[in-house]
Fold:
Amino acid sequence: MAKAGFATIIGRPNVGKSTLMNTLIGQKIAITSYKPQTTRNQIRTVYTEERGQIVFLDTPGLHAAKDRLGRYMLKAAESTLKEVDVILWLAEPKLPKEEDRAVMKLLAGVKTPVILCITKTDTVKKVELLPVIDAFARDYKEVTGGDPAAVIPISARTKQGIDDLKEALFSELPEGTPFYDSDTVTTQTEREIAAEIIREKALRLLQEEVPHGIAVQINRMHTRPGKNGEVCDIDADIICERESHKGIIIGAGGSMLKKIGMTARTDIENMIQTKVNLKLFVKVRRDWKDDDKALKAYGYNEKDLNGR
Structure:
Protein backbone atom coordinates (compact mmCIF):
# COMPACT_ATOMS: atom_id res chain seq x y z
CA MET A 1 0.00 0.00 0.00
CA ALA A 2 1.18 3.52 -0.75
CA LYS A 3 2.27 5.88 1.98
CA ALA A 4 1.13 9.41 2.76
CA GLY A 5 2.20 11.85 5.42
CA PHE A 6 3.52 15.23 6.46
CA ALA A 7 7.17 16.30 6.74
CA THR A 8 8.29 19.62 8.19
CA ILE A 9 11.60 21.20 7.21
CA ILE A 10 13.41 23.05 10.02
CA GLY A 11 16.81 24.58 10.62
CA ARG A 12 18.68 27.78 11.30
CA PRO A 13 18.02 30.80 9.04
CA ASN A 14 19.56 30.67 5.57
CA VAL A 15 20.48 26.98 5.77
CA GLY A 16 18.73 26.22 2.48
CA LYS A 17 15.29 24.94 3.51
CA SER A 18 13.37 26.60 0.70
CA THR A 19 15.96 25.58 -1.89
CA LEU A 20 15.75 21.95 -0.76
CA MET A 21 11.96 21.94 -0.84
CA ASN A 22 11.96 23.34 -4.36
CA THR A 23 14.41 20.59 -5.37
CA LEU A 24 12.37 17.83 -3.72
CA ILE A 25 9.15 18.72 -5.54
CA GLY A 26 10.91 19.50 -8.81
CA GLN A 27 9.85 23.10 -9.27
CA LYS A 28 10.15 26.48 -7.60
CA ILE A 29 7.44 27.33 -5.09
CA ALA A 30 9.23 28.77 -2.06
CA ILE A 31 11.21 31.98 -2.53
CA THR A 32 14.92 32.04 -1.84
CA SER A 33 17.54 34.71 -1.26
CA TYR A 34 20.93 35.02 0.33
CA LYS A 35 19.39 36.95 3.22
CA PRO A 36 18.37 35.02 6.35
CA GLN A 37 14.71 34.67 7.36
CA THR A 38 13.43 34.93 3.80
CA THR A 39 10.61 32.48 4.56
CA ARG A 40 8.05 33.93 6.98
CA ASN A 41 5.11 31.54 6.73
CA GLN A 42 4.63 27.81 6.61
CA ILE A 43 4.75 26.99 2.91
CA ARG A 44 3.01 23.75 2.02
CA THR A 45 4.03 21.79 -1.07
CA VAL A 46 3.10 18.32 -2.28
CA TYR A 47 5.29 15.60 -3.78
CA THR A 48 3.51 12.57 -5.27
CA GLU A 49 4.95 9.45 -6.91
CA GLU A 50 4.32 5.69 -7.02
CA ARG A 51 5.53 5.22 -3.42
CA GLY A 52 2.96 7.69 -2.13
CA GLN A 53 2.66 11.35 -1.19
CA ILE A 54 4.74 13.65 1.01
CA VAL A 55 3.32 16.99 2.09
CA PHE A 56 6.24 19.28 2.90
CA LEU A 57 5.99 22.23 5.27
CA ASP A 58 8.82 24.72 4.77
CA THR A 59 9.09 26.90 7.88
CA PRO A 60 10.91 30.10 8.84
CA GLY A 61 14.41 29.66 10.23
CA LEU A 62 14.65 29.05 13.98
CA HIS A 63 15.92 32.25 15.56
CA ALA A 64 15.51 34.53 18.56
CA ALA A 65 12.34 36.59 18.18
CA LYS A 66 12.81 40.38 18.38
CA ASP A 67 9.31 41.62 17.48
CA ARG A 68 5.79 40.36 16.80
CA LEU A 69 6.76 39.23 13.30
CA GLY A 70 9.72 37.37 14.80
CA ARG A 71 7.47 35.66 17.34
CA TYR A 72 5.03 34.74 14.57
CA MET A 73 7.88 33.24 12.52
CA LEU A 74 9.17 31.27 15.49
CA LYS A 75 5.69 29.92 16.21
CA ALA A 76 5.33 29.00 12.53
CA ALA A 77 8.56 27.02 12.76
CA GLU A 78 7.74 25.28 16.05
CA SER A 79 4.02 24.63 15.63
CA THR A 80 4.40 21.69 13.27
CA LEU A 81 6.93 19.59 15.17
CA LYS A 82 4.40 17.44 17.02
CA GLU A 83 1.81 17.44 14.24
CA VAL A 84 3.82 15.90 11.40
CA ASP A 85 5.00 12.35 10.69
CA VAL A 86 8.68 13.18 10.21
CA ILE A 87 10.96 16.14 10.86
CA LEU A 88 13.59 17.05 8.31
CA TRP A 89 16.32 19.01 10.10
CA LEU A 90 18.86 20.82 7.92
CA ALA A 91 22.31 21.77 9.14
CA GLU A 92 25.33 23.17 7.32
CA PRO A 93 28.52 21.07 6.89
CA LYS A 94 30.27 22.71 9.84
CA LEU A 95 30.86 21.50 13.39
CA PRO A 96 27.76 22.07 15.57
CA LYS A 97 27.38 25.55 17.02
CA GLU A 98 25.27 26.82 19.90
CA GLU A 99 22.43 27.54 17.49
CA ASP A 100 22.48 23.90 16.37
CA ARG A 101 22.37 22.70 19.97
CA ALA A 102 19.39 25.00 20.55
CA VAL A 103 17.56 23.13 17.79
CA MET A 104 18.54 19.83 19.43
CA LYS A 105 17.05 21.04 22.72
CA LEU A 106 13.85 21.92 20.89
CA LEU A 107 13.73 18.39 19.44
CA ALA A 108 14.50 16.70 22.77
CA GLY A 109 10.87 16.63 23.85
CA VAL A 110 9.51 15.58 20.46
CA LYS A 111 8.76 11.93 19.69
CA THR A 112 8.46 12.53 15.95
CA PRO A 113 11.31 10.84 14.02
CA VAL A 114 14.04 13.24 12.91
CA ILE A 115 16.06 12.93 9.71
CA LEU A 116 19.21 15.03 9.92
CA CYS A 117 20.38 16.42 6.59
CA ILE A 118 23.87 17.86 6.32
CA THR A 119 23.35 20.28 3.45
CA LYS A 120 25.57 22.06 0.90
CA THR A 121 27.95 19.09 0.72
CA ASP A 122 29.18 20.35 -2.65
CA THR A 123 30.94 23.17 -0.77
CA VAL A 124 33.25 20.90 1.29
CA LYS A 125 35.57 17.94 0.72
CA LYS A 126 34.42 14.48 1.75
CA VAL A 127 37.23 14.21 4.29
CA GLU A 128 35.86 17.35 5.97
CA LEU A 129 32.31 16.03 6.04
CA LEU A 130 32.80 12.86 8.10
CA PRO A 131 33.90 14.64 11.31
CA VAL A 132 30.87 16.94 10.99
CA ILE A 133 28.46 13.99 10.74
CA ASP A 134 30.12 12.31 13.75
CA ALA A 135 29.95 15.51 15.80
CA PHE A 136 26.26 16.09 15.04
CA ALA A 137 25.37 12.47 15.86
CA ARG A 138 27.32 12.65 19.14
CA ASP A 139 25.85 15.99 20.25
CA TYR A 140 22.34 14.95 19.22
CA LYS A 141 22.51 11.86 21.41
CA GLU A 142 23.94 13.86 24.29
CA VAL A 143 21.22 16.54 24.12
CA THR A 144 18.16 14.45 23.20
CA GLY A 145 19.08 11.05 24.61
CA GLY A 146 18.35 9.37 21.27
CA ASP A 147 19.53 9.08 17.70
CA PRO A 148 18.23 10.62 14.47
CA ALA A 149 16.19 8.26 12.32
CA ALA A 150 18.83 8.86 9.62
CA VAL A 151 21.74 11.17 8.85
CA ILE A 152 21.98 12.01 5.16
CA PRO A 153 24.46 14.36 3.46
CA ILE A 154 22.87 16.20 0.54
CA SER A 155 23.35 18.97 -1.97
CA ALA A 156 20.21 20.61 -3.32
CA ARG A 157 22.28 22.28 -6.03
CA THR A 158 23.80 19.08 -7.46
CA LYS A 159 20.94 16.83 -6.24
CA GLN A 160 23.45 14.54 -4.56
CA GLY A 161 21.73 12.48 -1.87
CA ILE A 162 18.20 13.60 -2.85
CA ASP A 163 17.09 10.06 -3.81
CA ASP A 164 18.45 8.72 -0.51
CA LEU A 165 16.57 11.44 1.34
CA LYS A 166 13.27 10.60 -0.38
CA GLU A 167 13.78 6.92 0.47
CA ALA A 168 14.38 7.80 4.14
CA LEU A 169 11.31 10.04 4.22
CA PHE A 170 9.00 7.40 2.77
CA SER A 171 10.34 4.84 5.24
CA GLU A 172 9.05 6.99 8.12
CA LEU A 173 5.61 7.72 6.68
CA PRO A 174 2.48 5.71 7.58
CA GLU A 175 0.49 3.82 4.99
CA GLY A 176 -2.48 5.75 3.71
CA THR A 177 -4.25 7.44 0.84
CA PRO A 178 -3.02 10.78 -0.60
CA PHE A 179 -4.25 13.99 0.98
CA TYR A 180 -4.21 15.88 -2.32
CA ASP A 181 -4.71 15.15 -6.01
CA SER A 182 -1.57 13.92 -7.78
CA ASP A 183 -1.29 17.16 -9.81
CA THR A 184 -1.30 19.40 -6.71
CA VAL A 185 2.12 20.92 -5.96
CA THR A 186 1.18 23.59 -3.41
CA THR A 187 -1.77 24.73 -1.31
CA GLN A 188 -0.79 28.37 -1.67
CA THR A 189 -3.04 30.52 -3.84
CA GLU A 190 -1.73 32.26 -6.93
CA ARG A 191 -2.20 35.57 -5.13
CA GLU A 192 -0.01 34.40 -2.22
CA ILE A 193 2.68 33.10 -4.54
CA ALA A 194 2.63 36.31 -6.60
CA ALA A 195 3.20 38.35 -3.43
CA GLU A 196 6.11 36.11 -2.44
CA ILE A 197 7.67 36.38 -5.92
CA ILE A 198 7.59 40.18 -5.70
CA ARG A 199 9.15 40.08 -2.22
CA GLU A 200 11.89 37.73 -3.43
CA LYS A 201 12.83 40.00 -6.32
CA ALA A 202 12.93 43.00 -3.99
CA LEU A 203 15.18 41.16 -1.53
CA ARG A 204 17.56 40.02 -4.25
CA LEU A 205 17.81 43.36 -6.06
CA LEU A 206 18.02 45.53 -2.95
CA GLN A 207 20.74 43.30 -1.47
CA GLU A 208 21.97 44.92 1.78
CA GLU A 209 20.55 48.38 1.13
CA VAL A 210 17.21 47.83 2.84
CA PRO A 211 16.69 45.79 6.03
CA HIS A 212 14.42 42.78 6.01
CA GLY A 213 11.40 44.83 7.04
CA ILE A 214 9.44 44.70 3.79
CA ALA A 215 6.14 43.02 3.02
CA VAL A 216 4.03 42.74 -0.11
CA GLN A 217 0.26 43.08 -0.32
CA ILE A 218 -1.68 42.19 -3.47
CA ASN A 219 -4.59 44.65 -3.77
CA ARG A 220 -5.96 43.44 -7.09
CA MET A 221 -5.43 40.37 -9.26
CA HIS A 222 -7.91 40.24 -12.12
CA THR A 223 -7.84 38.47 -15.48
CA ARG A 224 -9.39 40.18 -18.51
CA PRO A 225 -9.45 39.64 -22.29
CA GLY A 226 -6.57 41.26 -24.17
CA LYS A 227 -5.70 41.80 -27.83
CA ASN A 228 -3.57 38.65 -27.98
CA GLY A 229 -5.16 36.55 -25.25
CA GLU A 230 -5.90 36.97 -21.57
CA VAL A 231 -4.09 39.54 -19.43
CA CYS A 232 -3.82 39.43 -15.64
CA ASP A 233 -3.80 42.88 -14.01
CA ILE A 234 -2.00 42.89 -10.66
CA ASP A 235 -1.73 45.89 -8.34
CA ALA A 236 0.58 45.37 -5.37
CA ASP A 237 2.04 47.42 -2.54
CA ILE A 238 5.58 46.98 -1.28
CA ILE A 239 5.47 47.92 2.40
CA CYS A 240 8.55 49.32 4.12
CA GLU A 241 9.23 50.83 7.54
CA ARG A 242 11.08 54.07 6.73
CA GLU A 243 10.80 56.96 4.26
CA SER A 244 14.50 56.48 3.48
CA HIS A 245 13.78 52.86 2.54
CA LYS A 246 11.00 53.99 0.22
CA GLY A 247 13.43 56.10 -1.78
CA ILE A 248 15.86 53.21 -2.13
CA ILE A 249 13.12 50.80 -3.25
CA ILE A 250 11.88 53.27 -5.89
CA GLY A 251 15.41 54.20 -7.02
CA ALA A 252 16.52 57.10 -9.21
CA GLY A 253 13.71 57.92 -11.60
CA GLY A 254 11.88 54.76 -10.49
CA SER A 255 14.68 52.53 -11.84
CA MET A 256 14.83 50.05 -8.93
CA LEU A 257 11.05 49.64 -8.74
CA LYS A 258 11.01 49.02 -12.49
CA LYS A 259 13.66 46.28 -12.12
CA ILE A 260 11.69 44.62 -9.34
CA GLY A 261 8.53 44.73 -11.43
CA MET A 262 10.16 43.38 -14.59
CA THR A 263 11.80 40.40 -12.90
CA ALA A 264 8.72 39.61 -10.81
CA ARG A 265 6.41 39.82 -13.83
CA THR A 266 8.43 37.19 -15.70
CA ASP A 267 8.16 34.66 -12.87
CA ILE A 268 4.47 35.37 -12.31
CA GLU A 269 3.76 34.93 -16.04
CA ASN A 270 5.58 31.59 -15.97
CA MET A 271 3.50 30.54 -12.97
CA ILE A 272 0.03 31.43 -14.28
CA GLN A 273 0.85 31.05 -18.01
CA THR A 274 -0.79 34.37 -18.76
CA LYS A 275 0.51 37.81 -19.77
CA VAL A 276 0.77 40.00 -16.67
CA ASN A 277 0.31 43.74 -16.28
CA LEU A 278 2.02 44.42 -12.93
CA LYS A 279 1.80 47.77 -11.15
CA LEU A 280 3.87 48.25 -7.99
CA PHE A 281 3.48 50.95 -5.36
CA VAL A 282 5.68 51.62 -2.32
CA LYS A 283 4.10 52.56 1.00
CA VAL A 284 5.60 53.34 4.38
CA ARG A 285 4.09 51.77 7.48
CA ARG A 286 6.28 52.37 10.48
CA ASP A 287 6.92 49.41 12.78
CA TRP A 288 4.44 47.18 10.96
CA LYS A 289 6.31 44.11 12.24
CA ASP A 290 5.02 44.92 15.75
CA ASP A 291 1.45 45.71 14.66
CA ASP A 292 -1.03 42.82 14.92
CA LYS A 293 -3.48 44.42 12.49
CA ALA A 294 -0.75 45.00 9.90
CA LEU A 295 0.63 41.48 10.30
CA LYS A 296 -2.80 39.99 9.59
CA ALA A 297 -3.32 42.30 6.61
CA TYR A 298 0.00 41.15 5.11
CA GLY A 299 -0.80 37.46 5.55
CA TYR A 300 0.86 36.61 8.87
CA ASN A 301 -2.07 35.21 10.82
CA GLU A 302 -1.42 32.92 13.78
CA LYS A 303 -4.74 31.10 13.36
CA ASP A 304 -3.38 29.68 10.09
CA LEU A 305 -0.69 27.83 12.05
CA ASN A 306 -3.06 25.58 13.94
CA GLY A 307 -3.36 22.00 12.76
CA ARG A 308 -2.53 20.43 9.42
Q: What stands out?
A: The beta strands are 3-11, 43-49, 52-58, 86-91, 114-118, 150-153, 215-226, 229-240, 275-284. The longest strand covers residues 215-226.
